[in-house]
Every structure is written in structure tokens, then in C-alpha cells.
Write a structure and sequence with these properties.
The chain has eight helices and seven strands; from the N terminus they run H-H-E-E-H-E-H-E-H-E-H-E-H-E-H. It is an alpha/beta fold. The chain has one domain: Glycerol-3-phosphate (1)-acyltransferase (3-Layer(aba) Sandwich). Strands 1-7-6-2-5-3-4 form a seven-stranded mixed beta sheet, with helices on both faces. The longest helix has 29 residues.
């Protein structure tokens, strides 16, 4: 039975955070008066459509396309073009009869813009892991449930393991998972420690773990700020890490390897 260390931690903010650069007055008020209202309108518009579609789309497929459209609009609002590297590495992950690359995709987490970036630029259907408490919220919980996302319940070790097994079943059904193994956004832009839940699920399902490195989203929208600083962004897909022959006891070592790859890629590509 896996230990508590594999569970997704609650988002935590270190006591000492990196100071954010001073934002020009004009850019700050442009964000408040134009950008943030546009983001809110886009989210309300696409969210309403997704809730309506959820009445009949129990598979979550159509809702994923709506989420992708929402994400692309948010990136356009941010005036931040995205370069994607490593798409060719997805092809070997596609199994016979399944056009989706089957794997656990693990990304660093720097900003609220990470999720739109992943939805906009990963060219396949996937499901995400999210805190179980979100399922209790009106509308949001309905969307998460109807679209087939995976709740992570940390109320106890037993509940945590059951949550991870739901993720394993999602993988076994042919749907890839996208996770943030750091558990929350970085307050400094530096990579935090990672928990081994994603590696554990990949090993149980016998699918690869694929490192994804996001570059530029921290500078675009750091944690606890509400002003966008437009800039070019990068999404880098790394080489898949196979899990053949591994057992769940290897989850910690696999996670350390994953973190090392993402850290080195981030340092090498920082804008």
C-alpha cells in the first residue's frame, strides 16, 4: 500500500516569496479595465456553453473542445504566443485503436495560465486531477463531474489511494492524464518538490510518464498578482519515461528523475 507521500499536497505558499517586478501604471490599468473583464466574459461564455453541453455529453469529449476554445481565447487576450516543442514524441505513445497518446503528462506549475496553455496546445483529449472540494461547488463541480475529471480526496490515506486508483482506471480506459505533481503554483518561479502520485498511477497502469516544461507563464502572471505581462511562452514535451518492469516502490525514484528533467529543461529554456 502506498504511503501518504504519493498524495497530491494542498497548494502551499512559502513564507518568503520572490518580489514581483514593478508593473508600469498604464499596463496595470489596461489589465484592470480591459484584460480582466475580457477574461471574465470569456470564462462565463464558454463555461455556460460547457454546462449546457454537459446535459448530454457524459463522455466529456465535447466539453474538452469547448475548454480548448476557451484556453485559446485566453492566450489571445494575453497577447502571448506559444511555441510548442516535442510534438513528434507523442506519436510512439499512440496505441493501436487509440489516437490519443496514452501516458501521464506531468507539468511544472507556475501560474493560473498554465492550465489554459495545456488545454490550448496539447493536441489530444485528456483528463486532469483536481481537488475533491471543487466537486462540491455549484456549476464547477457539475462540470468537473460531467466532463470526467478525476477528484483527489486527501481527507485520509485510504481516500487518497482510492483517488489515485480512479486515475489508474482513467488511464486504463484509454484517456491520458495531465497533472501538476508540485501540487500548487510556484511562488518564486523555481521548481518545488514533487509528490509521487503521478508516477504511482503510471506504474500501476503501465504507461509512460512524460515531462512537460512550461516556460514564461510565471513572468506572464505570477502567483498573487492580477496584471498580465505579455511575452512569448514555451511548452516543451520531453522524452517519455517508460515504466516497464517498475513497481510502485519505484515511484519516488521515478518522480525524482521527472523533476530533474523538468528542472534542467526549464533552466535551459528560460526566457
Amino acid at each position: 500500500m502506498p504511503s501518504n507521500e504519493i498524495l497530491q499536497p494542498e497548494e502551499r505558499v512559502p513564507a518568503a516569496e520572490a518580489p514581483h517586478p514593478r508593473v508600469p501604471f498604464a499596463l496595470r490599468w489596461l489589465t484592470y479595465l480591459l484584460v480582466l473583464p475580457l477574461i471574465s466574459l470569456a470564462t462565463a461564455f464558454f463555461g455556460s456553453i460547457s454546462l449546457l453541453v454537459g446535459l448530454w455529453d457524459s463522455s466529456g469529449r465535447q466539453q474538452h473542445y469547448i475548454a480548448r476554445a476557451w484556453a485559446r481565447v485566453l492566450l489571445r487576450i494575453a497577447l502571448s504566443p506559444v511555441t510548442v516543442e516535442g510534438l513528434e514524441k507523442l506519436q510512439p505513445l499512440r496505441r493501436e485503436g487509440n489516437r490519443r497518446p496514452l501516458a501521464v503528462f506531468a507539468s511544472n506549475h507556475l501560474s493560473y495560465y498554465d492550465t489554459p496553455m495545456l488545454f490550448a496546445k496539447l493536441p489530444f483529449q485528456f483528463r486532469i486531477l483536481a481537488k475533491a472540494s471543487l466537486w462540491k461547488l455549484p456549476f464547477i463541480g457539475w462540470y468537473l463531474n460531467r466532463s470526467g475529471q478525476v477528484p483527489i480526496d486527501q481527507s485520509s490515506a485510504r481516500a487518497g489511494v482510492a483517488s489515485l486508483m480512479r486515475g489508474v482506471k482513467t488511464l486504463q480506459s484509454g484517456l491520458p492524464l495531465v497533472i501538476f505533481p508540485e501540487g500548487g503554483r510556484s511562488a518564486t518561479g523555481e521548481l518545488k518538490s514533487m509528490v509521487a502520485g503521478g508516477a504511482w498511477m503510471a506504474i500501476r497502469a503501465q504507461v509512460p510518464v512524460v515531462p512537460i516544461t512550461l516556460v514564461g507563464t510565471y513572468e506572464l502572471l505570477p502567483i498573487h498578482t492580477y496584471v498580465l505581462r505579455p511575452r512569448p511562452l514555451k511548452l516543451i514535451i520531453g522524452d517519455p519515461i517508460p515504466t516497464d518492469g517498475l513497481t510502485t516502490r519505484d515511484a519516488e525514484g521515478l518522480t525524482d528523475r521527472l523533476r530533474s528533467i523538468i528542472h534542467e529543461t526549464y533552466i535551459a529554456n528560460s526566457l
